[in-house]
Structures are given as C-alpha cells and as structure tokens.
Amino acid sequence: MQIIVIGCGKVGSSLARELIAYGHEVVIIENDREMMKNAEDLDCVKINGVPIDTDVLKSAGIESVDALCAVTPEDNMNLMAAQVAREIFGVDKVIARIFNPNNKELFEEFGINTVCSTTLSVNAIIR
What we know:
Elements: E1 2-6, H1 10-21, E2 25-30, E3 45-48, H2 54-59, E4 67-70, H3 75-88, E5 93-98, H4 104-109, E6 113-116, H5 117-126
C-alpha cells in the first residue's frame, strides 16, 4: 500500500518505520525541519511542508494513495489534514490521532477514524 504519514514526531516516525517494515510505500509530510530528523534513517520519501497545502499533498502522491494517517500533536491540524484527504482527494482510509477525547465526536461526524492516546492510556491503566 501507499501511505502518507502526516507528522514526524515520535508517533509519526515510529508508525512510518513499522509500515516500511511491513513492505508499504511511505511518504512523510512534516512542517518542522527539526522533527524530520526523526526519520533520517528511514527509506521513504520525506517532504517538508504544510500538510494541508494541496500542492504539498499532490507532491506526496495523494491522488493515488491508499491511506493517510494524520498523527501530529495537534488535533486541529490532524482534523484539517484528514478532511482535505477525504473531501478533496477522496482518500478512503483516513486515520487521525487525537489528544482531546472530547474531539472524537467531531472527527466521527466527518467520517474520520481516530486513535486517542489519552483514552488508550487511561483504559490501559484502569485495566
């Protein structure tokens, strides 16, 4: 599969590493050049740019991508990137990371699957 990962922090770079290990073609988009250092050792395309810019997304191959994962540390950026992928480019598989569990309903209203690290952490500790 061809997968775009938005964000190259710990989660984005780790996700990209695992996807590459599974044989997927990965493109990482990150706005912060310093954060892109997390992916220096990864065999994938790396693009420095604003992840909601349609020209940046086109250069990442969004028009033929199988999935997009928005995993920046900002809920708003993840929502916008996911919406652009879904609404403008018609990407079927879109997953967004959220920090604030109260935002889950908003993301779901737009048909975006989410992973909430806050909820996962709380549930793991409770178990």
